[in-house]
């Protein structure tokens, strides 16, 4: 994922670009590098960006494949971007 630049005070939305395919019931968790905060939506949103929001954010997507024969398989993929906040 590429770094994202956003102006302070504006809204920021970013969709987790990771697609795991079949099954379509993929769970998504967003994590902030310097915080214990987590979000569980495909779209990460900050309603009004503050300079304190500048950080590295990681999207972790996982899905469990339940085949008709054999054991279930879990697939996990992750990607990160740096949120750069530009002061007004």
From TrEMBL:
InterPro entries linked: Ig-like_dom, Ig-like_dom_sf, Ig-like_fold, Ig_sub
Pfam family, one: Ig_3
SUPFAM superfamilies to which the protein is assigned, alphabetical: Immunoglobulin
Domain of life of the native organism: Eukaryota
Domain Ig-like per the UniProt entry, residue ranges: 1-77
Protein name from the UniProt record: Ig-like domain-containing protein
Organism: Dreissena polymorpha
